[in-house]
Amino acid sequence: MNGYEKAAIFLSSVGEDVAAQILKELDPADIGKISSYMARFKKKDTTKVESVMKETIDRVSSGDVRVGGEDYVKKILTKGLGGDDAERILEMVSKESPLESLKWVNPKTLSSFLITEHPQTIALILCLLESEQAAEVITALPEHIRFDVAMRVATTERIPDSALEEIETVLKGQLDIGKGKDGKTFHGTKVIAEILNQCERGTEQVILEKIETQNEALAESIRELMLVFDDLEQIDDRGIQLILKELSTEDLSLALKTASNELKEKIFKNMSQRAVQILKEEMEARGPVKVSDVEAAQLNVVKIARKLNDDGKIIIAGRGGEELVV
Question: Same domain, yes or no, for 123 and 234?
Answer without folding.
Answer: no
